[in-house]
Amino acid sequence: AQTVTQSQPEMSVQEAETVTLSCTYDTSENNYYLFWYKQPPSRQMILVIRQEAYKQQNATENRFSVNFQKAAKSFSLKISDSQLGDTAMYFCAFMKHGRGGGGADGLTFGKGTHLIIQP
Amino acid sequence: ETGVTQTPRHLVMGMTNKKSLKCEQHLGHNAMYWYKQSAKKPLELMFVYNFKEQTENNSVPSRFSPECPNSSHLFLHLHTLQPEDSALYLCASSQERGGANLKTYEQYFGPGTRLTVT
Fold it and tell me: Which of A8, B20, B84, B118 measures 20 to 30 Å from A54, CA to CA?
């Protein structure tokens, strides 16, 4: 079984600052995916960024980037030039590659980090 | 708007009631999921349906009964629930492919149903 740990229950930064959210995971799988999801007060879960474990290059999506360290099983999210709209719960999630011949697999989530962007 | 809708958005039910949650995806995906989000636990996977067949039941009590009549619709039938079942129930969908192609299979979530059991 996989586990995902987010050690920061809450973080608060000033608008325009850079913030890094940490995530570690434990798995015996070699092929898997990692995701960061954002859940604002509306409760709508939104995909922020994804990383394939076989790729060494860190994923980047505009102001969001990850630091993926496979050997250390670490997957942190960096938000640059933070904005008020970034205020939300952020969840790190793990998904193993589908079974042989295909097949869906569910996500294993961490407990989340509540990020507050102060004006 | 993610292309995944859920109804109702809020539901209050007694422990002896029977109700159903509905999820519909408009993305042409072939896999659907139910997750439970309660206040004191991480999001928990409940069920996985792939090509309309249930491929995973994550040790969910039998008072929760899923149904997937086609690849666009997913239901969660509820009966004789307990107060601790009060939670946000999230539906998600994804496009799955077979073989060794390590494509990404990101899941798209609906807005959830806030369930309160009294």
Answer: A8
Backbone angles phi, psi at A66, to 5 degrees: -120, 155
Task: Report the pLDDT averaged over residues B72-100.
Answer: 88
pLDDT, residue A103, reads 53
Phi, psi of A86 (to 5 degrees): -80, -10
The angle formed by the CA atoms of residues B70, B36 and B69, to the nearest 5 degrees, is 10
Which residues, in sequence order, are CB contacts of B100 under 8 Å at separation 6+? none
Q: Is the pLDDT of residue A111 over 70?
A: yes
Type of residue found at A94: F
Question: Which of A51, A107, A113 is best to mutate for the B interface (most B CBs within 10 A)?
Answer: A107
pLDDT for residue A45? 94
